[in-house]
Amino acid sequence: xxxxxxxxxxxxxxxxxxxxxxxxxxxxxxxxxxxxxxxxxxxxxxxxxxxxxxxxxxxxxxxxxxxxxxxxxxxxxxxxxxxxxxxxxxxxxxxxxxxxxxxxxxxxxxxxxxxxxxxxxxxxxxxxxxxxxxxxxxxxxxxxxxxxxxxx
Length: 152
Prior knowledge:
Blueprint: E1 3-7, H1 12-25, E2 28-32, H2 42-48, E3 56-60, H3 63-73, E4 77-80, E5 86-87, E6 98-101, H4 110-115, E7 118-121, H5 134-148
Parallel strand pairs: 1-2, 1-6, 2-3, 4-6, 4-7, 5-7
């Protein structure tokens, strides 16, 4: 099953909503620091409601710490960016993929994108809309990967 990786998330309710989506789908969630909030933040917990016991949560202090775990487990790193090369809806996912998303304000850093095997984008019709909300992007991408792999 693909895993979700949030690199430097800044907004607690977004991360809480993503955690809830991960709980509902049995998807592992990796938070890569530094975070823009405390893991115990009440807004984070409120957005996740009472689903936190069902979240397979991993916290990594840095991108390097996360990369160490990734090297042990293997799989492709798929970076999601408005400047991605491939449309997420036409991509062939693998069960061992890691779906990486950057912070709400800056996206994935050049360093994080350089680590990715592929970069994907979610097409949007309106060119004046910079991006989708992080929790929406994660949900859309995760469910497309799950559909592609036959998990629905």
